[in-house]
Specification:
The structure holds two protein chains of two kinds. Chain A contains twelve helices and two strands. In chain A, helix 2 packs antiparallel against helix 3. In chain A, strands 1-2 form a two-stranded antiparallel ribbon. Chain A is about 65% helix and about 0% strand. Chain A is mainly alpha-helical. The relative contact order of chain A is 0.20. By secondary structure, chain B is mainly α. Chain B folds into two domains: about 250 residues, no CATH class; about 110 residues, no CATH class. In chain B, about 65% of the residues lie in helices and about 5% in strands. Chain B contains 16 helices and eight strands. A two-stranded antiparallel ribbon of chain B has the order 1-6. A two-stranded antiparallel ribbon of chain B has the order 2-3. Chain B has a two-stranded antiparallel ribbon with strand order 4-5. Classes of the chains: A mainly alpha, B mainly alpha. At the A-B interface, helix 4, helix 9 and helix 12 of A face helix 6, helix 10, helix 12 and helix 15 of B.
Chain lengths: ~325, ~400
């Protein structure tokens, strides 16, 4: 597994290198935070450990690539708007289709498993991951599909650090999405989702359509995974585009979820940025000759094991109350 | 009818592994058929004696050993582990460290099989015991992700430890299946080349098949016995209600460590045998998909049962071959057949790059899935299907059939 991490640092003094590492870590952490958020929303609402998150990431990124380059829908009808608006409309439509797909997956494969043992459902998501990832790889082919981001490779040079427009937009979009999700949980549907997460049976008794809440949770999770996949497939991560290895970025976000705590949204965000910063630090400071290739890829898991030894339910997770 | 069937008059008779005549007869027949496979005498199963099928069955026997280990850990003790490929890799690389050729560019000590095979299991077991305390600290789903992390950490180690593994995408040769007394002496028993035993000519594949079948049978016997001992019952109590078990006096910490240790022992042995059997393995072989295959075997076959493990392994290992043959047969029907069957087959199979079909039978990129991808999709669908419809897997289906006929003509 290649690090998939491009550091924008040049020959800069140590303090600049540190600042550059911080910037890279935060922008990479944004991707992990999005993946972790989607994962935790699905877990909180449905108690399902979603091993299929990688497949949703790859699928979302692929749909964006398809909508932006080949289908150009609805961009082809919006020729009066500037190009970046067309691109954004295409990308958002693609992500909505990915969200629909997530809801469909939940309805078909996971609804029959409601009430079953949790690890059995997790294994079902493992099966779903295999199926969706294989079919997506088949559609994708072996060549990477570019996503054609309109801001291209432009960078902003602030003197002490260089940051690309792409990274700025990624961080901004992540913060905006986080804000939208926090607002969502104050709406009626959001409260219904929180109620379902808290006590499923009572929520049903109150008249909440629990099935719809499940599908919505998966739709949101798939949307966020698609956004993360989109960000992972453009400069400066993988400028070539989405290919068959895009899905594996989600496996590197699992430690972020565990570090934060499986049922804490704040923990997911904190964990995501923590893993991003740790990977950036490993990339910047640990020498290739000593540790070989791919070490930043497992830094998250090592951090996760250390955190679990201290706090077995993650930093912000609620300890499970087990009764005999 | 003389006497009452299934009347057990002693504890030993009740706890016996083969407590009914049917079980004894069927097991005997199964062994007879298994032994006769390389001789190709049983009508209808003669094709199994061909070299490629023999190698497939031998691989299945090795996977049985590994799956029995995971069955003890996940099915019996209830600890979900996705890290089985990590322990298999440890077994394989310990084996090659001890058994690999001396003096070359890669690490090796040239020791014989009776050292490296048990060592592979024992050292893998020790690593499993070292990992065990995390299973006590974290539970359930958290443990699944910790073991997932083990696989990725293992992938990183094997990819970078060139002197042991040969390096990424390159790999190295593993010690062959030969029994010697000491390092460079000629082998007493050679399971890789054809030779004559007791006057009968055996091919290398047949000998390896017998060896692995014996190993699998011994492992299955040990696993089945484990279920009816104190340790097995302790595992099951931890699986069902670990707090209650602890209250009753089952030392949760010790037994979880033991479960990880035993499971990793099986995995290490299986990894060493697998690597030696296929002779050359790249470090990328020990990836997440190998772990998922074992999880699939356990859940498709029936978690917690030894029979289920056998059924699941046969299903999962033979599935790709059967799908391939089936696709080729469909292709033949689509191209040469006539009538409605050919039309249906044509929908499923794409025979030329412009033909529509779910499955490609030609090499190259087309609208359908390749046979390898079809195998993967079927894997996933089977895992999902069995968990949704039959949580006890193939063994559960067998139980339903058996109970139906046991009670016939009554419904229950």
């Amino acid at each position: 597994m290649t690090p998939g991490f491009v550091v924008l640092a040049q020959e800069t003094p140590a303090s600049n290198e540190f600042a550059q590492m911080l910037v890279d870590g935060i922008s990479f952490g944004a991707i992990y935070a999005l993946l972790a958020m989607g994962f935790v929303i699905i877990f909180k609402a449905t108690s399902v450990l979603n091993f299929a998150h990688g497949a949703l990431t790859g699928l979302g990124a692929f749909l964006v690539a398809a909508f932006v380059t080949v289908l150009d829908f609805p961009g082809r009808y919006l020729t009066s708007l500037p190009e970046w608006a067309q691109w954004s409309a295409n990308a958002i439509t693609a992500l909505l289709v990915a969200a629909l797909f997530g809801a469909l997956l939940e309805r078909v494969f996971l609804r029959p498993m409601v009430g079953e043992a949790l690890f059995a459902v997790a294994i079902v998501t493992l099966g779903v991951d295999i199926v969706v990832r294989t079919i997506t790889n088949d559609w994708m082919g072996t060549q990477p599909r570019p996503l054609g981001a309109p801001w291209g490779l432009n960078t902003v040079d602030l003197g002490w650090v260089r940051i690309s427009w792409s990274e700025i937009i990624q961080i901004v979009v992540t913060v905006v999405l986080l804000g939208l999700i926090v607002l969502f949980f104050r709406t009626r549907t959001g409260v219904a989702m929180r109620a379902t997460a808290f006590d499923q049976e009572t929520a049903r008794a109150q008249g909440i359509r629990v099935g719809r809440v499940f599908s919505l949770a998966w739709a949101i999770g798939a949307f966020l995974a698609g956004v993360a996949g989109l960000f992972y497939s453009i400069y400066p991560r993988r400028a070539t585009g989405v290919d068959q290895s895009t899905a594996f970025i989600a496996f590197r976000a699992f430690p972020a979820v565990i570090i934060g705590g499986l049922d804490s949204l704040l923990g997911a965000v904190v964990g995501g940025f923590a893993v991003g910063l740790a990977e950036a630090a490993a990339n910047a400071y640990l020498k290739f000759e000593v540790l070989g290739s791919g070490f930043p890829g497992i830094v998250g898991y090592l951090m996760m094991m250390v955190v679990l030894l201290i706090r077995p339910y993650g930093l912000f997770g609620t300890p499970e109350i087990r009764r005999v | 009818m003389r006497g009452r069937p299934l009347l057990y008059t002693s504890y030993e008779a009740d706890q016996a592994l083969l407590n009914t005549t049917t079980k004894r007869v069927m097991l005997g027949l199964f062994f007879l058929v298994l032994i006769s496979i390389p001789f190709q005498v049983v009508p209808g199963l003669k094709f199994l004696g061909q070299e490629d099928w023999l190698r497939l069955l031998t691989t299945a026997a090795i996977f049985v050993i590994g799956a029995l280990g995971l069955n003890i850990l996940t099915g019996l003790a209830g600890q979900v582990s996705l890290g089985h490929s990590f322990f298999m890799a440890i077994g394989a690389y310990v084996a090659v460290w001890l058994g690999g050729p001396e003096g070359g560019p890669l690490i090796g000590l040239g020791l014989p099989i009776w050292i490296w095979l048990p060592a592979a299991g024992i050292i893998a077991a020790l690593v499993g015991v070292a990992v065990g305390p995390t299973a006590v600290r974290v539970r359930g789903l958290y443990l699944a992700i910790v073991t997932l992390g083990l696989v990725f950490i293992g992938e990183y180690i094997w990819r970078n430890w060139d002197s042991l593994t040969g390096g990424a995408q390159v790999g190295r040769d593993f010690p062959p299946l030969q029994v010697r007394l000491w390092k460079e002496e000629p082998p007493l028993l050679d399971f890789t080349t054809p030779s004559t035993w007791f006057g009968v000519e055996f091919s290398g594949a047949a000998k390896a098949f017998f060896l692995m079948t014996v190993f699998a049978a011994v492992s299955a016997l040990l696993a089945k016995n484990l279920q009816r001992t104190r340790v097995g019952r302790a595992f099951m109590s931890i699986r069902d209600r670990d707090i209650a078990a602890e209250i009753m006096g089952v030392n949760e910490f010790a037994y979880k460590l033991l479960a990880f240790g035993i499971s990793s022992f099986y995995a290490g042995i299986a990894g060493a045998l697998l690597a030696s059997f296929v002779t050359r393995v790249i470090p990328e072989r020990w990836d997440l998909f190998l772990s998922v295959q074992f999880i699939a075997i356990i859940f498709i076959g029936g978690a917690g049962t030894v029979t289920g493990t056998f059924l699941g392994t046969a299903f999962v290992i033979l599935l790709p071959r059967i799908v391939q043959n089936f696709t080729l047969w469909l292709q033949a029907v689509a191209t040469e057949g006539e009538g409605i069957l050919a039309a249906i087959a044509d929908v499923f199979v794409a025979t030329t790059p412009n033909d529509f079909g779910l499955v490609n039978t030609f090499a190259g990129v087309g609208p359908g899935l390749s046979v390898a991808q079809l195998n993967l999709v079927l894997y996933g669908l089977l895992i999902i299907g069995f968990l949704i419809f039959e949580p006890f897997g193939l063994y559960g289906i067998w139980l339903r059939i058996r109970n139906y006929w046991k009670g016939w003509p009554f419904t229950y």
